[in-house]
């Protein structure tokens, strides 16, 4: 799933490509992807792109005061096309194409989603806050107002909730997903099951520094990369996420995994849990 660093880089790349260009046509290939009806999708046709920004994990293309907002979900992506086929795309359950934006001249963007589980979402709105997911976002972890004191307040408010869940919840902190929450907790040498309010002063400072450092470094690495390069860049720099069975780059212990119904987490026992393997939440009590 694209998270804060990748969506930030996508926004930067598209801002440079789209600035001042006209949207001549939009083709909707996956009708379930469009979540709004007013303004209609056609309201974007004939507009000029003014900006491309990010809200959490939402990508926002603003054109003449109308916003095309995309949430790429787990398997969505945006692909630049130097040439767009003359024939409009047809709706097909087997095609990964969800939406095509045709520009003047005939370049464009394909918004795609791999797999059969379709959860990519597109919104056409006059104000980004008209998108419920944006209106309910928590603070962005890389803005100046996300201070150490603000983070302390969040952890205290979340009480006994597990810290991984707190990091991932978009209404609490915007932009962090499953992958980077694994990475942040590994960098902070902290169990994903640790209750948020149980962190002492040093642990809070360490986790805060990991959030700012890991995400900030990822944004810096991604800056200037084309959309086609971002997935590989993310995978290359993961320490534990997606690396089950491999050696931890810090201590050499084997990276382990806990599986859930529709996701999983990865961690290093030596770095994060005192050498103890975490129990699967579906069958056992949590290990602290």
Q: What do these coordinates show?
A:
The protein contains eight helices and ten strands. The protein has 288 residues and is of the alpha+beta class. An eight-stranded antiparallel sheet has the order 5-7-6-1-2-3-4-8. It has a two-stranded antiparallel sheet with strand order 9-10. β6 (97-104) and β7 (108-113) form a beta hairpin. α1 packs parallel to α6 (201-222), α1 (4-18) packs antiparallel against α7 (227-236) and α5 (178-187) crosses α6. It is elongated. The relative contact order is 0.13. InterPro entries: FPG_cat, FPG_N, H2TH_FPG, Ribosomal_uS13-like_H2TH, Znf_DNA_glyclase/AP_lyase, Znf_FPG/IleRS. Residues 2-120 form the Formamidopyrimidine-DNA glycosylase catalytic domain. Keywords: DNA damage, DNA repair, DNA-binding, Glycosidase, Hydrolase, Lyase, Metal-binding, Multifunctional enzyme, Zinc, Zinc-finger.
Structure keywords:
288 residues, N-terminal domain of MutM-like DNA repair proteins, Helicase, Ruva Protein, domain 3, 2 domains, 8-stranded antiparallel beta sheet, two-stranded antiparallel ribbon, elongated, disordered C terminus, DNA-binding, hydrolase, DNA repair, DNA damage, lyase
């Amino acid at each position: 799933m694209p998270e804060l660093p990748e969506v930030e880089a996508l926004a930067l790349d598209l801002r440079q490509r789209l600035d001042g260009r006209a949207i001549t046509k939009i083709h909707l290939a996956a009708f379930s992807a469009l979540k709004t009806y007013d303004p209609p999708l056609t309201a974007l046709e004939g507009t000029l792109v003014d900006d491309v920004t990010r809200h959490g994990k939402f990508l926002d293309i603003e054109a003449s005061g109308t916003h095309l907002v995309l949430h790429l979900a787990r398997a969505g992506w945006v692909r630049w096309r130097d040439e767009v086929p003359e024939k409009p795309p047809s709706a097909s359950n087997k095609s990964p194409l969800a939406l095509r934006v045709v520009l003047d001249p005939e370049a464009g963007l394909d918004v795609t989603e791999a797999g059969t589980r379709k959860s990519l979402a597109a919104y056409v709105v006059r104000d980004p806050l008209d998108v419920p997911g944006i209106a309910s976002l928590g603070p962005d972890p890389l803005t100046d107002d996300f201070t150490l004191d603000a983070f302390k307040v969040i952890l205290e408010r979340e009480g006994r909730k597990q810290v991984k869940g707190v990091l991932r919840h978009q209404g609490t902190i915007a932009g962090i997903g499953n992958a980077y929450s694994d990475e942040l907790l590994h960098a902070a040498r902290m169990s994903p099951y640790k209750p948020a309010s149980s962190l002492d002063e040093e642990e809070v400072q360490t986790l805060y520094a990991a959030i700012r450092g890991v995400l900030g470094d990822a944004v810096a690495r991604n800056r200037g990369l084309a959309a086609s390069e971002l997935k590989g860049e993310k995978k290359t720099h993961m320490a534990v996420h997606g690396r089950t069975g491999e050696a931890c780059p810090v201590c050499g212990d084997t990276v382990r995994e806990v599986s859930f119904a529709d996701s999983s987490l990865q961690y290093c026992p030596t770095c994060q849990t005192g050498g103890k393997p975490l129990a699967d939440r579906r069958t056992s009590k949590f290990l602290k």
